[in-house]
Design goal:
- The chain is an alpha+beta fold and 136 residues long.
- It has one domain (3-47, 82-134).
- 35% of the residues lie in helices and 26% in strands.
- The chain has 4 helices and 6 strands, in the order H-H-E-E-E-E-E-E-H-H.
- The chain is elongated.
Amino acid sequence: MTTTATTATTATAATTTTAKQIFEYNGDIISVDLSNVKFCPGPCNDSMEESSPSIYTSQNNGVNNVKEIHCFKPYSGGKYSKFCYPINNTQTLVLKNLRICSYCHHRYLEFSEENYIEGLNQDANTIMKKLEKNLV
């Protein structure tokens, strides 16, 4: 077990219980199901809940089309199945069922496409700290 995972599970007795509820450990995979999380779980500093979607109405050939646009991505209101952040050379943080702000989404895609592992490592640690702080 690396220092990162040890810190997440043994900081204090209270944190140990909380970390086990938040994070699921399976070998070198640390995963968290974000189905019920209403704030951006990404590395940004924002922990405010996503606001209600905006409703847009358009008319095409006499037919009204109503569309909801959400603040977080995907804008349709759905969820991404998973984002994977390498924590270090052996461990990976897997965020499941997430909605994420456009800044964090863009950052994740950019770092992934450029294979910027150091940036993804830093983001993984930031995300773990953010989730521990806000999901208690």
